[in-house]
C-alpha cells in the first residue's frame, strides 16, 4: 500500500467499490452502537475524551504501520498543514458534534436527522465539484428530507441542543467528505497521510479544549473505569474510531463523497429500526414512525438510483439533469 494519488473512480473495479462501501457501512453501524453504549448506557460524561481516544488510536496504528513499511505517506514538514487544510477543522467539528449528538439523541432520531447530510453533500458537490444530478435522484433526496422533517417535528424527546449538534454534524460530515475526495489527489498524502495528519493536527487542540472546559476532569473521575465491561467498550470505541475514519477515506477513494454518504443512508435503515427496540431511549409515536419510514423509503430509492443508474456526473443517455449555475 502506498500514498499514490487517487486515480479516477472509473479506474477502480466494481468489486473494490462494492467492498469499500460495505466496509464503511459495517464500520459505521458498529461504532454507532458502541458509542451509544459508552455515552448513554454507561453514561460516560466526556464525548471529547472519547474522540481523543479515537484520534490516538489512529495515530498509533498508522505510525506502527509506517514504521513496519506496511503503508507509506509523506514525513511531516511545513507544507503538511497547507496541503491538508481545511480538513483538520472539518474533522474535529465532525468528530465532536457527532459524539455529542450520539449521546443526546435516541438512535432512530440520530439516524433520521443524519439524512440531511445527503442533501448537504449533494449541494456541496454541485457548487464545489461542479457536478450534475438526475432529477429523479434529486426527488429521492427531497423524500428523504421530508421524512426526516416529519419524524423530527413529532419527536417526543425534542432537545434543541441535541438537534443543533446533529445538524452541525451533518454540515461538517458533508464538507469533510467533499474535501477529503479533493485531498486524496494531493501529492505525498494519499489515504494514510490524510488520516494520520488530520489526527495529529487536531488531537492536541482537542486535548487542551477538553482540559480547559473541565471535560477531561469529568472523564478522569468517572467511576466505571474499574468496570471491565466499560473498559472493553471504551477501547472498542477508540479502535473503531480509527476503523471508521479509514473506511470513510477508503470508500471516498474508490467511489465518491456522495456515494459514501449514500452508503451511510443504507446503514441507517438498519440502525434506525433496531434502535426502536434497543437502547431504551426511543419514545414511540405513529407520526414519528411514519416520518421515519418515509425517510427510510427515500433513502432506499436514492441508494437504488445511485448504484444502478449511470454516474451522476454523466450526461449520457439523455437523463434529465439538475445543474446549479454559480
Automatic annotation (TrEMBL):
<feature type="transmembrane region" description="Helical">
    <location>
        <begin position="44"/>
        <end position="64"/>
    </location>
</feature>
<feature type="transmembrane region" description="Helical">
    <location>
        <begin position="257"/>
        <end position="278"/>
    </location>
</feature>
<feature type="transmembrane region" description="Helical">
    <location>
        <begin position="225"/>
        <end position="250"/>
    </location>
</feature>
<protein>
    <submittedName>
        <fullName>Solute carrier family 35 member D2</fullName>
    </submittedName>
</protein>
<dbReference type="InterPro" id="IPR004853">
    <property type="entry name" value="Sugar_P_trans_dom"/>
</dbReference>
<feature type="transmembrane region" description="Helical">
    <location>
        <begin position="137"/>
        <end position="157"/>
    </location>
</feature>
<feature type="transmembrane region" description="Helical">
    <location>
        <begin position="112"/>
        <end position="130"/>
    </location>
</feature>
<feature type="transmembrane region" description="Helical">
    <location>
        <begin position="284"/>
        <end position="305"/>
    </location>
</feature>
<dbReference type="GO" id="GO:0016020">
    <property type="term" value="C:membrane"/>
</dbReference>
<feature type="transmembrane region" description="Helical">
    <location>
        <begin position="163"/>
        <end position="180"/>
    </location>
</feature>
<dbReference type="InterPro" id="IPR050186">
    <property type="entry name" value="TPT_transporter"/>
</dbReference>
<feature type="domain" description="Sugar phosphate transporter">
    <location>
        <begin position="17"/>
        <end position="303"/>
    </location>
</feature>
<keyword id="KW-0472">Membrane</keyword>
<feature type="transmembrane region" description="Helical">
    <location>
        <begin position="21"/>
        <end position="38"/>
    </location>
</feature>
<dbReference type="Pfam" id="PF03151">
    <property type="entry name" value="TPT"/>
</dbReference>
<keyword id="KW-0812">Transmembrane</keyword>
<keyword id="KW-1133">Transmembrane helix</keyword>
<feature type="transmembrane region" description="Helical">
    <location>
        <begin position="84"/>
        <end position="100"/>
    </location>
</feature>
<feature type="transmembrane region" description="Helical">
    <location>
        <begin position="192"/>
        <end position="213"/>
    </location>
</feature>
